[in-house]
Amino acid sequence: MKYVLIFLLSFFAFHAEIEAQTIQKDSIQVLSLAEFEKMSAKRKSKILDVRTPEEVAEGHLLGSTTVNFLSPDFSTEIQALSKNKTYLLYCRSGTRTRKAADAMQKMGFKHVYMLEGGITAWKEAGKELVK
């Protein structure tokens, strides 16, 4: 009986976490490669690479600005940005992008988007990188 109770509690906790992630994902729009490229051409758009400097050195998107999500200065650097611009975020696969985008939204940024699949998807599509 004890194991059944543990199983049920684990199942409901897992289900609640999945629902919360789904709701959270709906708050930040995820862009396909084509949508990301189209939006990055607009003047009000700014591309933010939220990876570490070591990762950025391996290659990054042309015109991107690095704001290391793992840096203790991340919040300070983000607060210095204009909230009137559109921000297009990417990392390696999307995990840090999601967290960075959520943080930006909580800080009052209204136009925050993320690249589906991150720079990994960008590379797999044969898109250009700058070193």
Structure in words:
- The protein has 131 residues and is of the alpha/beta class.
- The chain has a single domain (28-124), classed as Rhodanese-like domain (Oxidized Rhodanese, domain 1, 3-Layer(aba) Sandwich), CATH 3.40.250.10.
- Helix content is 49%, strand content 15%.
- It has 6 helices and 5 strands, in the order αβαβαβαβαβα.
- It has helices at residues 2-27, 33-40, 53-57, 74-79, 95-106, 118-124; strands at residues 29-31, 45-49, 65-66, 86-90, 112-115.
- Strands 1-5-4-2-3 form a 5-stranded parallel beta sheet.
- It starts with a helix and ends in a 7-residue tail after the last helix.
SSE topology string = HEHEHEHEHEH
Strand order, main sheet: write it out: 1-5-4-2-3
What proportion of the residues form beta strands (DSSP E)?
5-15%
Total count of domains: 1
Number of helices: 6
Shape: globular
Low-confidence stretches are 15-25
Number of strands: 5
Distance between the termini: 59 Å
> What is the typical, i.e. mean, pLDDT?
86
- Judged by helices, strands and strand pairing, the structural class is alpha/beta
The level of helicity is 40-55%
CATH topology call? Oxidized Rhodanese, domain 1
Topology of helices and strands:
Elements: H1 2-27, E1 29-31, H2 33-40, E2 45-49, H3 53-57, E3 65-66, H4 74-79, E4 86-90, H5 95-106, E5 112-115, H6 118-124
Parallel strand pairs: 1-5, 2-3, 2-4, 4-5
